[in-house]
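Q: Sequence in, structure out?
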Amino acid sequence: MNIPEALKTALALHTSGRLAEAEELYRRILAAEPEQAEAALHLARVVHQAGRPAEAAALYRAALAKTPDSFEILTDLSRALREAGDPVGAAEVLRRASQLAPEDAGPFVALGQILLELGRGREALAACRQALMRDPTGSAANLCTGQALLALGEPQRAAAHFRRIIETAPDASEAHNALGAALTALGDLDGAAAAFTRATELAPGGAEAYANLAGVLREAGQTEAASLAYDRAVDLGGGPGAMVKRALLLPVLPESVPEIDRARRRMADRLDRLRSGRVRLADPYREVGQTPCALACHGRDDRPLQESWAFFYRRACPELSFVADHCREPEAPKGRIRLGIVSAFLHDHTIGRLNRGFIERLDRSRFKLVVCRLPGRMDEYAAAAEAAADELVDLPDAFYPARDLLAAKRLDVIYYPDGGLHALTYFLLHARLAPVQCVGWGHPQTTGLATADLFLSGTDLEPEGADAHYTERLVRLSRLNLCVPRPPEAPELSRADFGLPEDRTLYLCPQSLSKFHPDFDRALGSILRTDPKALVVAFHGAHPRLAGLLAARLAHIYPREAERIAFLPRLSREQSLGLTALVDVNLDTFHFGSVSSSLDAFGLGRAVVTLPGDFARGRTTSAFYRRMGIEALIAGNWEEYVALALRLGREIDFREEMEAEIAARSELLFDDTAAVEECADVLAAAAGVQD
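A: Exactly. Output:
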């Protein structure tokens, strides 16, 4: 065989797209001359091009053995490994490539992208900074750096890098798309929508930007527009992820109870179509990244839909049903119980505040506490969790690496305090990562998962027959597994500090607008109609448009009264306490009530009117009252709710009487170490350890 001529022919076949013929000839050349380095490299490339990345990776390694210091082969090998599902191997190869070409930003950018996929944000940022040192104005280096900062919870800094790209390359659709993600994280939904829209204009065939735009429109309450954007993403080949996101779409502020029922039926129908279409997901967290948790605001039994979603996800992605080795034949713990607490919200968030006492006061003679958190902001609560942990695990923001890391910890019990509220914890719950897996009422809704063994709730939180609401075994604690400090004293603020009038009776409802169920409109309207001096104070929510939607909804029934709702922007904790202290009445929402704001009100000795719902999520405030032994402000129906609110607002003596009683008994709600002990006993018994 004339090797040079044969190689020339093979290259011509390869270039013309006749891959099978080129591959055969490359192999014949190597059979005749095994050390032919050029043939070895091109054989790897033709196999790679033919869609066999794992086989190509082995061939690239063979070619590399002939030319050990080839930067070209190393970068090709890294791409093949990544496509073959070995990102860790690809990262190692890129580190080697970066040493061979120390001035080239490319390997560092590629390394940063892989580390981001692995959820290793800090390492990704370090690699991207190396790329920036070599190419400060490069689009790829700035894009990767911004994405790493975004993953680490620094959207403001991320946005600066995306804008830097746009300044020099205004038509860079990927930069506009990334800027939209950063602005979404910053709460600038209008800016995000504009950025995503620009990305779709620049790359009209890009499904990702349409799906991102749909998500922002959904948060802004533009459900129909969001549905159309999801349709467009699906039509453009957005893959199964876009189809699932469309099926999960629910209105943030439904116009009516019938609309709630229609939306739930629509979700069920779309889910049935997904199941019948045999949709497959390789990585649900990356492709979808959403949970059905919004169902909780509807005042309906969510178990059937939650179970259906769980079944769908496990069928669409069988890898979700992973079982850790130590869970196949579990044994009772020897020595201290290895308890993992897993949450994305162990910082200054309702979940972080509610669970700080549990983390700090759990009996360490019985438990070794492994705090497992996601990347996020560091603050007082995050620092407290870190200081209290026997072992701290920073989970990567990626499903498979996080799952494998948790499995390697060989935990006896995992406690998810907020269940399926965050997408990563929801998908982790599909796997069996500890012999005992529990969820708490931080998000009071069943997960629908057979792999969640216990739901830790409270006797006062659950109505009769509540076991049927859960796929988990319901545990009714005598307390609420709550050990929180009394809130600090409220600052002395005036109504003028909030732009509120002095001559009105202020009824504060500080809940997320998504909790304003249409059934609640009747109560608000009746309060406003009966008390001409009443002014309801609420908050804008994720987008100012939501306030307009709520006012318009209320105006359908109470057109004049709807004008007497004042919407405030989001406040700091200190400002919220000051506002709570100076209003006349605090109102709890129907069907999905308050936790933190009610605790703050009670800690300040202020009264809250509540109407317990049919599910735990609408019974937290009444559970706090029953813990204090106070029943007078728990309404039996919406008419009683209105009457109690008006009485508090208009009868100063009654209000002061209630506030005095709350102030005298509210100590029962705070620093309750017995609640931690009771929960610890339940967890120990579930793990098979008896006192």
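The two ends are 81 Å apart (CA to CA).
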